[in-house]
Amino acid sequence: MAHLDLTGDVVALTRTLCDIPSVSGDEKQLADAVESALREFAHLEVLRDGDAVVARTGLGRATRVVLAGHLDTVPIANNLPVVEDGDLLRGRGTVDMKAGVAVMLQLAALLTTPRYDITYVFYDHEEVAAKLNGLGRLVRNHPAWLTGDFAILGEPSDGTVEGGCQGTMRVKITVPGVAAHAARSWRGSNAIHSAGGVLDVLRAYEPRRPIVEGLQYHEGLNAVKIEGGIAGNVIPDLCTVFVNYRFAPDRDVATAEAHLREVFTGFALEVTDAAPGARPGLDQPAAKEFVELVGRTPQAKLGWTDVARFATLGVPAVNYGPGDPLLAHTDGEFVPVPEIRTALGNLTRWLI
Amino acid sequence: MAHLDLTGDVVALTRTLCDIPSVSGDEKQLADAVESALREFAHLEVLRDGDAVVARTGLGRATRVVLAGHLDTVPIANNLPVVEDGDLLRGRGTVDMKAGVAVMLQLAALLTTPRYDITYVFYDHEEVAAKLNGLGRLVRNHPAWLTGDFAILGEPSDGTVEGGCQGTMRVKITVPGVAAHAARSWRGSNAIHSAGGVLDVLRAYEPRRPIVEGLQYHEGLNAVKIEGGIAGNVIPDLCTVFVNYRFAPDRDVATAEAHLREVFTGFALEVTDAAPGARPGLDQPAAKEFVELVGRTPQAKLGWTDVARFATLGVPAVNYGPGDPLLAHTDGEFVPVPEIRTALGNLTRWLI
Asked: Per the database record, which ranges form the Peptidase M20 dimerisation domain (chains A, B) (predicted)?
């Protein structure tokens, strides 16, 4: 089994983690190495579910924070092993997100008596279908392993704290018509034409940009699919518009649905899919401290991320990790070495 | 081979024709019987192409009229042999259109010296895909067989003359956008929302109802298909609207296209399919005579029919035949016996 040196140089640890391939579904070798390395430390209780590894202190502190990161990567594109290029580490997984995992593993090893209790979570299947997500599986199988007052996911966040995330809801709007032969179209009622009313609503819609706990969000209401018509000579009796609503975390799923029903008054609407957003939790004392320590203005997270999985357990969560999130999934992904050291430094100062 | 008695009772002939099954693709037995029966008459030249049979007089008249009908039917639905029910003949093919064929066959046999030269056309594959249509095949293979000054198709027309037919054009309108993640929709441009502009045009469009050679047509401009969107979390970069334009026969295909390009100014439009309409030809002296003799107000034909195939050869054409066209293709189709006799009488008085 590969050996991980958790107490050595964090940059060397990042390289080692990257050079153990762990494309989604193939995380076992890395998960075994992580579990084995963590079990060397007596101050940690180590737990395992599939290829997810959880380690936690049990110091009886009043506050518990959770540090989490995923072990898997998107497929390798001839970009391993890692290459050191001046101040950069280049290669698959460097930015998304083994640098963040390396920082957390080193904290786990070195912080024997942190001022908050800490739960470290390293999980599988983040880069694939949501139903496979290892963090989601832990939420279902072992919610008690994830309890805490505040969570940080080590995803790349460009050195700032990215708070919470927006929720998402998909609705199917069904617009009826009356079929007729196209040669006598006035005997029918064209469902596609009537769906123009749905597009009118979408074109006129002004998305909110609310500020929640100091972070500015940006909503969106968009048709993501439209379909109607069965033959070139038939007036269609059905047109379906699928709409995606991205909503700020000051709205819950029920409020989002009520809003859509009001916006689309007169149309038949069915919710097909919804995931709540997550408040950033920056009103928590431990979170405030951390944001001040990072020293940069926190940003709202617009896309839905795994922080929302913590939100379902009532644990506010943010993203904070080394590297530029826009490089994630690119074949040329890299992480700047100074950012790894900065992240390690900030988290250590906060937790020590 | 089945024997057809062309000079006996036209109602008995209708029954005999119906009771020889001739579902599209299976017309050979009936075509053989028709050819054989027509060859008994020395005043007719008989020609054959596949299962289409053409017979014509050669009297050197200044005017030639064409009488045409299809031999095939839609599939039998346990509605053969024909049942006589009071004044009705019930069963597959009675109304669509073996009563009309029977009338024409009797005219072919009896009118040895009509006042116009007459070409009789009995063809296959009318009830299936247009590319198989026997009349279309004759237009391609033997256009000279179909020449004339005026044509009548014996399709059921409820005792009136149905003139010409509308043309049809299908266009594909492609609306572009800029893809983006649905969580950051403002970075993209939603093609489905932009396609709302196409639906605006369609909803505001006022179709023409022009009078052409005394007949009132009714145009239509309708979306018959719409599709856009590739995933529930992506702002679509393409939406396609398929539009069907039904246009009166005072417009040709080029004029119809120019009209659509003007109506949809600013949108990318591609013509995918077009078929010209057909003028009714009611300004022809022979046609005028016939309409007066029928004594009922002629009606515009709105759907595209085989009369347009004659139009492509420069032969104006109308529909005239016994029975209600709305019964065509129904399992309960029937034809009233008096209408068969009326059609035979009117055509005889016109041609004798």
From this structure: 166-265
Q: What is the distance between the alpha carbons of residues B58 and B65, in angstroms, rounded to a whole number? A: 12
Residue A298 belongs to a domain = yes
Indicate if A87 and A21 belong to the same structural domain. Answer: yes
Q: What is the pLDDT of residues B191-239, one digit of tens each?
A: 999 999 999 999 999 999 999 988 999 999 999 999 999 888 889 999 9
Which of B27, B35, B96, B126 is an active site residue?
A: B126
Residue A244 belongs to what H/E stretch?
strand A238-247
Residues of B in contact with A166 (CB under 8 A): 183
Q: Which of A196, A225, A228 faces B203 most closely, judged by CB atoms?
A: A196
B273, A246: Cβ pair inside 8 Å?
A: no
Do B158 and B179 have their domain in common? no
Residues A134 and A183 in one domain: no
ipTM of the complex: 0.80
Q: Tokens 């969560």 label which residue?
A: A317
* Upstream peptide bond of B280 is cis (omega within 30 degrees of 0): no
**Residue B5: inside a domain:** no
A209/A322 same-domain check: no
**Confidence class for position A303, pLDDT limits 50, 70, 90:** confident
CB neighbourhood size of B145 (10 A): 18
Are residues B129 and B209 part of one domain? no
Query: Taking CB atoms and an 8 Å limit, are B192 and A244 in contact across chains?
Result: no
> What value does the mean pLDDT take over residues B160-181?
93
CB contact under 8 A, A228 and B225: yes
> To the nearest whole number, what is the mean pLDDT of chain B?
95
Partners of A230 in beta bridges: none
Numbers of helices and strands, H then E, in chain B: 9, 19
CATH of the domain at A175: 3.30.70.360
Tokens 């042999």 sit at which residue?
Answer: B81
Q: Note the pTM of the prediction, 2 decimals.
A: 0.80
- Mean pLDDT of the region B122-137: 92
Q: Does residue B72 have an active-site annotation? A: yes
Contact B196 A199 (CB under 8 A): yes
Active site residue B126: yes
Report yes or no on B4 lying in a domain.
no
Give residue B293's domain range.
10-165+278-351
Residue B175: its H or E element: strand B167-176
Point out the catalytic residue in the list A27, A35, A72, A155: A72
- Chain B nearest-CA distance from A84, in A, is 32
For residue A11, the distance in angstroms to the closest alpha carbon of chain B comes to: 32
B172 shares its domain with B143: no
